[in-house]
Amino acid sequence: MTQSRGLVQRMTGAAFLDIETFEEVEHDETATGQAATVVILMAACQAIGGSGGGIVAAASAGLAALASWAIFAGITYLVGEKVFQGEATWGEVLRTLGFAQAPGVLYLLVIVPFFGWIASLVVSLWVLVAAFVGIRQALDIGNFKTFLTVLVAGGTYVFLQTFLLLLF
């Protein structure tokens, strides 16, 4: 396992669902900044591709994505480790989930007329699959426990988001 791969190589590996890449970023505590960069890039591409927004929309989306990433990683860590006996730290889950968003740079394609909705669907599914792989690798659990972790953590996150929106 190479510890010296750069951001682009790690993003490419994560996008191609390379297990070794997810293991590498899981164990490399210095990769948290790179994972945050991936999250910001994905959010900026989604903001620009989805709405044709400019730099302000991209920056706002990046900040919101960072908060969402941290919160979802925390929920996923708690569910995966405490409920389904995974073995990870919050940082490991955070890093793998960050890199799992690498395919999201293709959200830029959403701006293409008549193709955008297909691109959005494909990229969303791709990110979901990458997140599944990242969570499984970070928590060192099997596919079934990973599926349950994603289901419970995702449901909890959506409930929390809805509750906060209604509250504020």
Describe the protein.
The chain is an all-alpha fold. It is 76% helix and 0% strand. It has one domain. The chain has helices at 7-15, 19-27, 32-51, 55-83, 90-100, 116-139, 143-167. α4 crosses α7. The longest helix has 29 residues, at 55-83.
Q: How many separate helices?
A: 7
Largest sheet: none
Q: What is the residue-mean pLDDT, rounded to a whole number?
A: 92
* Overall geometric form: globular
Rg (C-alpha, Å): 16 Å
What's a concise summary of this model?
This protein is mainly α.
SSE map:
Blueprint: H1 7-15, H2 19-27, H3 32-51, H4 55-83, H5 90-100, H6 116-139, H7 143-167
Supply the key terms.
mainly alpha
